[in-house]
Amino acid sequence: MQGSIRIAAGSLAVGFAVLAIKYLAYAVTGSVALYSDALESLVNVATALVALFAVRLSAQPADQNHPYGHHKIEYFSAVFAGTLIILAAGMILREAWAGLRDPRAIEAPLPGLLLSGLASALNAGWSRVLIGRGRAMRSPALVADGRHLLSDVVTSVGVTFGIVLTVVSGWKILDPLMAGVVALSILWSGWHVVRDSFGGLMDEALPEEALAPILRAIEKGGDGAIEVHDLRARGSGPATFVDFHMVVPGDMPVSEAHAICDRIEQAIKATTADALVTIHVEPEEKAKLEPSEGLAIATKA
């Protein structure tokens, strides 16, 4: 978890650097699109601050008031980040409208584009780090921050294209028009971040690719059990909660049933990091599935 905190702190440093570069690009050119790009970088800094807070809090161990841990704070952080992305898009649309009403010529476009390109390169490189490490650490806050930076890169590319067209054609109106187009793209990105975060808050089931190793672990460690049913699994930030009912022969000693539970739990934790497993042991008259030669597993009630 310390690694994710360091990455979140790195995002804050990158955010401040990119903000300074983009504002300088706007100051050099006076471009509405570059000004809008700089506005979004303000949101990047705010998002990085929120992500750092969320990652630090989610790392806290479970306590009396939060016996299941603090993992879900990262989903709230991701929702907030998505909301900030949408807010940035609204601010950009406002600036684009003002530019449409009063188009202005772009000054010193080449230095401005070079500065914008430098900022985009920083964002592109860091967004890959955030998304890759965030997925590996199962950190929704880091992934949301990375997606936000990626949307910023797309914005900057669009802004660059618009400025080049404006300079070549002499049509000053293209500058604010491009700012409006990229604002709509940012809105779409913000919606995706918010939607994905609500899935975590609503305890959506694990996708099939994440559930598959859990099923294999149960099959591997469940020798001696008759069946597993009512299996449920959900993610909560870096943690994975797994619970199910395990049917064993009615005359099996409690110690043997407990040993099977231990084997299954160890097998799941070996394939799924930060797994929290709850197993309810039942006698064979509670079986719900058709008898089979091996361990029968059902993921639905």
TrEMBL record:
Domain Cation efflux protein cytoplasmic: from-to ranges: 206-284
The family this protein is said to belong to: Belongs to the cation diffusion facilitator (CDF) transporter (TC 2.A.4) family.
Record domain Cation efflux protein transmembrane: where: 11-202
Compartments it resides in: Cell membrane
Any GO BP: intracellular zinc ion homeostasis
GO cellular component: plasma membrane
Main location: membrane
GO molecular function, one term: ferrous iron transmembrane transporter activity
Keywords noted in UniProt: Cell membrane, Membrane, Transmembrane, Transmembrane helix, Transport
SUPFAM superfamilies named among the record's database cross-references: Cation efflux protein cytoplasmic domain-like (SSF160240), Cation efflux protein transmembrane domain-like (SSF161111)
Keyword Magnesium included in the entry's annotation: no
Protein's membrane topology: Multi-pass membrane protein
Protein name in the entry: Protein p34
InterPro entries referenced in this protein's UniProt entry, alphabetically: Cation_efflux, Cation_efflux_CTD, Cation_efflux_CTD_sf, Cation_efflux_TM, Cation_efflux_TMD_sf, CDF_Transporter
Database matches in Pfam families: Cation_efflux, ZT_dimer
Domain of life: Bacteria
Transmembrane segments: 7-26, 32-55, 75-93, 113-131, 152-171
